[in-house]
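We both want to read discrete structure tokens more fluently, so let's practise on a single case. Once you have written the record down, we can walk along the chain together.
***
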Amino acid sequence: MSPSDFPAGYRFFPAFSLSGREVRESDVEIAESGLFKGPASIEEAEIHGRFEGNLVVRKRLLIKASGRVSGTIRYGQIEIECGGQISGDVQAQPSSEHAEVMPDVASVRVAS
């Protein structure tokens, strides 16, 4: 079963490296040792490890102190613990918008 096969509302907890899969309609929690590379369009995300790619979080994006998020990022609400990092094309979107991230958007470094 791939992450894109998970039903809506399923919580996906990668504690390993996962690349090239698309996650949709699931909640995602990436473990501290985990790495996710690829697109994701989800309700909520809690990042302890690393996310690299196009990310749309319609509700709450929580980046923990050990978390690193980079790429094209859209979120409804964001919380970043001290030590957490986010970089790339980062924008808030109203919760009523259900936009998808455009994969070829030029990136701007927000934090390092």
Summary: The radius of gyration is 12 Å.
